[in-house]
Amino acid sequence: MENKCGCCSGEKMVVSCSGAADVGLLSDQVARSLSKNNRRKMSCLALFAVCGDEKINEFKSNDILVIDGCNVDCGRKVMENRNIEDYIHLRITDLGYKKGETPSNSEVINAVYKKAEVL
Is 54 domain-assigned? Predict the structure, then answer.
């Protein structure tokens, strides 16, 4: 059985650090909203960390948005570790939200979504 992630070259993709913190949850929710609204196709960040070089080379032809919740930058570090240099990076805390103090409600999700959808 062949493994397929459903990702094709040339696509607009989004991956997020879906960490345990509130801003990680927010990152995940924004990425899912982008995918649901057909703005970008969501892929699993863990896939980037574990897949083979052939798949990484396919991913490199995509327009990738990486959303991190905080300055630990898990998503950015995965990209760097896989030698993916051409991507857009959005960090939730750079938008003024604070880790441990940010509710993941529709108002905050929509505000971050508006920033992310134009990237």
Answer: yes
